[in-house]
UniProtKB/TrEMBL annotation:
Its EC number is 2.7.7.81. It comes from Paenimyroides aestuarii. CDD domains: CMP-NeuAc_Synthase (cd02513). It comes from the Bacteria. This is Pseudaminic acid cytidylyltransferase. GO terms for molecular function: nucleotidyltransferase activity.
Length: 234
């Protein structure tokens, strides 16, 4: 069973999105998309603090409107195109420590994750706790075995793994990819040079309906359709 602990939720939301301008506060079915991540974190009851890490004043105002804290602004170093998620987590955790605030666990939820639910967060936290993982994140199963993936060059097909060309798909192991929604991690493992995936990183599987990477306008529409479908079958 999930129990509220001294957990920090960090929602990274820089202002300089390229492929979808103002992506983090773009309207998603009636409200800014970041609002969904904030509200899910608050509704889960898992966090003693929900904060948004941003370099953008407008995003900061939207975040506060929907209940998140913005205790400090992101530095230029973590707001450029080359900063990683871990860079952001390290900066936030270090700033809290300087203020005398320490947390047991940190959950990073991306600002464009409207399909995450409080139930998913709570169940994933249970798995993370019960199995004593260093970190955990959501994954989605590939719908077709990647062991039978193809390459196309000059319109000609070649198998990436020729040894599997004649194998039945059901005889091949399932493969998964990062759902790009959230990451749980112990705060004491967040430091310069740290990585999200360790030898003790767990997975929480979600369905294709529960996840959608949003990199372009078509992805955005698919995410809206999935959200509406999920709401209709609750």
């Amino acid at each position: 069973m999930s129990t509220t602990q001294n957990n920090l939720c960090i929602i990274p939301a820089r202002g300089g999105s390229k492929r979808i301008p103002r992506k983090n506060i773009k309207d998603f079915l009636g409200k800014p998309i970041i609002a969904y991540s904030i509200e899910v974190a608050l509704d889960s009851g898992l966090f003693s603090e929900v904060m948004v890490s941003t370099d953008d004043e407008e995003i900061a105002e939207v975040a506060k409107k929907y209940g998140a804290k913005v205790p400090f602004m992101r530095t230029e170093k973590t707001a450029d195109d080359f900063a990683t998620t871990m860079d952001v987590l390290v900066e936030v955790v270090d700033k809290y420590k300087k203020e005398g605030k320490y947390f047991k666990n940190v959950c990073c939820i991306y600002a464009t994750s409207p399909l995450v639910s409080p139930e998913i967060l709570k169940k994933s936290f249970d798995v993370y706790n019960e199995k004593k993982f260093d970190s955990l994140f959501s994954v989605i199963k590939y719908s077709f075995p990647i062991q039978r993936s193809l390459s196309v060059n000059d319109d000609k097909i070649t198998f990436n793994y020729p040894e599997n060309a004649n194998k039945r798909s059901q005889d091949l192991n399932d493969s998964f990819h990062d759902a790009g929604q959230f990451y749980w991690m112990k705060e004491n493992l967040i430091c310069k040079g740290a990585v999200l995936v360790t030898k003790n990183t767990g997975a929480y599987e979600i369905s294709e309906l529960q996840g959608q990477d949003i990199d372009n306008e078509l992805d955005w529409k698919l995410a809206e359709l999935k959200y509406e479908l999920l709401q209709s079958i609750k």
